[in-house]
Amino acid sequence: QLQLVQSGGGLVQPGGSLRLSCVASRLPLDPYNIGWYRKAPGKEREEISCIRSSTGTSTYADSVKGRFTATKDNVARTVYLQMSSLKTEDTAVYSCARSRGPTCQFPLEGSWGQGTQVTVSS
Q1: How far apart, in whole angstroms, are the C-alpha atoms of residue 95 and residue 115?
Q2: 68: which of 19, 54, 64, 80 fits an S-S bond (Cβ 3.0–4.6 Å)?
Q3: Which tens digits make up the pLDDT trace of 69-99?
Q4: Which residues in the chain show pLDDT less than 50?
């Protein structure tokens, strides 16, 4: 019931944009935080954005700050990740997940989206 369903992603040229979506098919988004994470080959999973349920505010990793924007639509039960000025180093599998508490540091088991590949290449 916690699971999220993702859409979006694909292949884009450097400097391009993509939007990812993460839909809560059963339970509402609140009172969970929604985090976006990415995993590139040979690298650790990175938390890139967190929308906190308590405040509605979003925080970002330094690697994407100023280029990525996370928003949520509670009525549509959807969280979006708008990615702009994409770089080759943004290539990764992107996933969303719910979490509780003050951060998105500890995603809840069973809440992960299925993951979507984003490839930035010319």
Answers
A1: 4
A2: 64
A3: 999 999 999 999 999 999 999 999 999 999 9
A4: none
Transcribe 16-83 into DSSP letters. --EEEEEEESSS-STTSEEEEEEE-TTS--EEEEEE-TTT--EEE-TTTTTTEEEEEETTTTEEEEEE
Instruction: Give the C-alpha separation, 40 to 71, whole Å.
Output: 23
Residue 85 half-sphere exposure toward CB, CA atoms < 13 A = 7
DSSP assignment, residue 96? Answer: E
First-to-last CA distance in the chain?
Answer: 39
Question: Mean pLDDT across the chain, nearest whole number?
Answer: 95
Encoded tokens for 64:
């994407």
**Rounded CA gap, 84 and 66, in Å?**
9
